[in-house]
Amino acid sequence: MSAPRFNLRGVAAIFAAEMARTRRTLLQSVVTPVLTTALYFVVFGSAIGSHMREVGGVAYGAFIVPGLIMLSLLTQSIANASIGIYFPKFTGTVYEILTAPLSAIEIVVGYVGAAAAKSIVIGLIILSTAAFFTPLQIDHPAMMALFLVLTSVAFSLFGFIIGIWAKTFEQLNFVPALVITPLTFLGGAFYSIDMLPPFWRTVSLFNPVVYLVSGFRWSFHGSGDVSLAASLGFMTLVIALCLGLLIWIFRTGYRLKP
């Protein structure tokens, strides 16, 4: 008995539909995060940068670039993936998707792939925008690309889970607004945790975003707050946990089937 073939056409249809939705909401999906990042550069780069010239031998404007990109990656990956699956639930069309000749992995690949692709594009646009504000330095471009892809995939998976879990728009925005954004601001996006007192540095190591920002910053400047192995290990753990949870969700039909 032959193994079932991967339904590439079905995955491509979901992917294309999600990318088309992005084109219809281009202002919200792309322009808004880029303008927000530019404002961060003006506020943090000018106001704080005038008093803090360098951090670890890196100009402050260049130092905050990885943190700003990571902030946008996390929020956009979660938002794109969660909205992508939430609206079919909200309108009832999710039952058409579940009854289509698509496996769980094909559905996840379609939605998460589209969300990750959009986040990667936004990250690259923000990276290009940053070049207008500060000289860019990328010591390890291959590792930078790897972190860009892994972060987008990991948090698109996480956002997909949130979209399935959420019953209301308030729940949909709860985790990104009240959990992810504060953790990012407290995760060394705009400063090095080595600048903190020993106690608070130890507390910061329990913030998962520290490992994301640190690894991404290492790819730019060759140094980070934690080891590169710890950053990659954490990213792998997040992806594994999300995939395990999604396997359980599709097996049980949690908040997907009545």
Sheet having the most strands: 2 strands, antiparallel
Please, what is the average pLDDT? 89
Domain count: 1
Give the fraction of residues assigned to helices: over 70%
Number of strand segments: 2
Instruction: List the secondary-structure elements in sequence, H or E.
Output: HHEEHHHHHHHHH
Spatial shape: globular
CA-based gyration radius: 19 Å
The fraction of residues in strands falls at: under 5%
Note the gap between the termini. Answer: 33 Å
Give the helix/strand class. Answer: mainly alpha
Low-confidence stretches: none
Number of helices: 11
Spatial ordering of strands, largest sheet: 1-2
What does this structure look like?
With 258 residues, this protein is an all-alpha fold. It has one domain. The protein has helices spanning 8-24, 26-48, 60-63, 65-91, 94-99, 104-130, 141-165, 169-185, 198-204, 208-221, 228-252, and strands at 54-55, 58-59. A hairpin with a 2-residue loop joins strand 1 and strand 2.
Concise summary:
The protein has helices at 8-24, 26-48, 60-63, 65-91, 94-99, 104-130, 141-165, 169-185, 198-204, 208-221, 228-252; strands spanning 54-55, 58-59. With 258 residues, the chain is mostly helical. Strands 1-2 form a two-stranded antiparallel ribbon.
Describe the secondary structure blueprint for this structure.
Blueprint: H1 8-24, H2 26-48, E1 54-55, E2 58-59, H3 60-63, H4 65-91, H5 94-99, H6 104-130, H7 141-165, H8 169-185, H9 198-204, H10 208-221, H11 228-252
